[in-house]
Specification:
Order of helices and strands: EEHHHH
Distance between the termini: 67 Å
Structural class: mainly alpha
Strand content: under 5%
Largest sheet: 2 strands, antiparallel
Radius of gyration: 31 Å
Length: about 140
């Protein structure tokens, strides 16, 4: 019978576990979540003079961001990695610029648009022809 030990495939994804299966970051988020829940319960009970059992929604509302930051991983990223990307996406203009090609913009002496000339066919057969971009108007060829 062989001895099997699980090995982390990517060392970059490894996080040291502090308590149970929680890393230091997750443990900090859980602690902050508990602290905010206790603080919200104390505010409701002492400040508003209400029963703590009636304040379940405000308590959950105060602690939920910390729980999400600790355990939720959208697209495999942490919350502090996702939020700047999401903000940059939402704040950038959502437009794609399109500039149509004008038929009159062909240079002098070029063949008809439908048929490539001899030089264009030769250039297409060369090694690396897939890297050629006619829109860049490469000189010296």
């Amino acid at each position: 019978m062989a001895l099997r030990i699980p090995v982390q495939k990517d060392i970059g994804e490894y996080e040291e576990k502090i308590v149970g299966k929680m890393s230091l970051r997750t443990l900090a988020c859980v602690s902050l979540g508990f602290g905010s829940a206790v603080g919200a319960a104390a505010f409701v009970h002492l400040g508003l003079h209400a029963d703590v059992a009636d304040a379940a929604f405000p308590i959950m509302l105060c602690s939920m961001p910390f729980w999400l930051a600790g355990f939720w991983r959208p697209f495999g990223m942490r919350a502090e990695e996702l939020l700047p990307l999401l903000a940059a996406h939402e704040l950038s203009p959502q437009l794609l610029a399109y500039e149509p090609c004008l038929a009159g913009s062909l240079p002098e002496g070029s063949p008809r648009p439908g048929r490539p000339g001899r030089r264009a066919r030769r250039r297409a057969r060369k090694k690396g022809a897939e890297l050629y971009e006619p829109s860049k108007n490469q000189q010296g060829e």
